[in-house]
Amino acid sequence: MGIISSVYHCQWDAVENKSTVIIYGGGALVAVWLSATLVGAINSVPLLPKLMELVGLGYTGWFVYRYLLFKLFQDCTDVQATL
């Protein structure tokens, strides 16, 4: 445990703008708290969770179709062309 704390202490001493790091860290915590509160509020409305799940599933399918599926086929044809 002493090694970890000494490494952490050295890293923290190397930071020039400590106040900026603290402000960014605090802002990140506030953003996580705010997003959790927003998701909890949306989840309490009866119809919205299922609708959001459907939108997320549709977006995931579109993303795979658009960016991953054709990229896989393109990579496979590139490899076959080089052979």
From TrEMBL:
Membrane topology: Multi-pass membrane protein
UniProt keyword NADP, yes or no: no
Chief location bin: membrane
InterPro entries found in the cross-reference section: CAAD_dom, CURT1
One term under GO cellular component: chloroplast thylakoid membrane
Keywords, sorted A to Z: Membrane, Transmembrane, Transmembrane helix
Subcellular location: Membrane
Transmembrane segments annotated in the record for this chain: 21-42
Keyword Cell inner membrane: no
Residue span(s) of domain Cyanobacterial aminoacyl-tRNA synthetase CAAD: 11-71
Identification of the protein by name: Protein CURVATURE THYLAKOID 1A, chloroplastic-like
Record organism: Senna tora
Lineage, uppermost ranks: Eukaryota, Viridiplantae, Streptophyta, Embryophyta, Tracheophyta
